[in-house]
Write a structure and sequence with these properties.
By secondary structure, the protein is mostly helical. Helices cover 33% and strands 6% of the residues.
Length: 107
């Protein structure tokens, strides 16, 4: 199937190809099954945002309330799905807060 492109008002291009077709084509290119661990690893390796995860603090399972520690690995990162919050704390926030406190103290 020919990959058709659509021009948007901002002159960028998007594929009209269904995402499942794109994923199957990638799996074929890599010589793996789309549902395999190898496919997942390849997708992770290609993700341009893969390095951003390391910029945030992830709570450990042992730190969550109401967690049965016999059912989880206590040192594993939790899966963060809270959409009603500020989000995960950036690791850079501590230094920024200290900078703001120091500036406040010198007013």
């Amino acid at each position: 199937m020919k990959n058709r492109m659509a021009r948007l008002e901002d002159k960028s291009f998007v594929s009209e190809e269904h995402p499942s077709v794109t994923l199957r084509n990638l799996a074929k290119k890599w010589g793996v099954d789309v549902e395999s661990d190898e496919f997942v690893k390849n997708m992770d390796d290609q993700d341009p945002l893969r390095d951003y995860r390391a910029k945030f603090c992830y709570p450990k399972m042992k730190d969550l309330p109401h967690t049965d520690l016999e059912q989880v690995h206590p040192e594993d990162d939790c899966i963060y799905l809270n959409g009603n919050s500020l989000g995960l704390k950036p690791k850079s926030a501590d230094a920024k807060m200290l900078e703001a406190l120091n500036a406040w103290g010198t007013l």
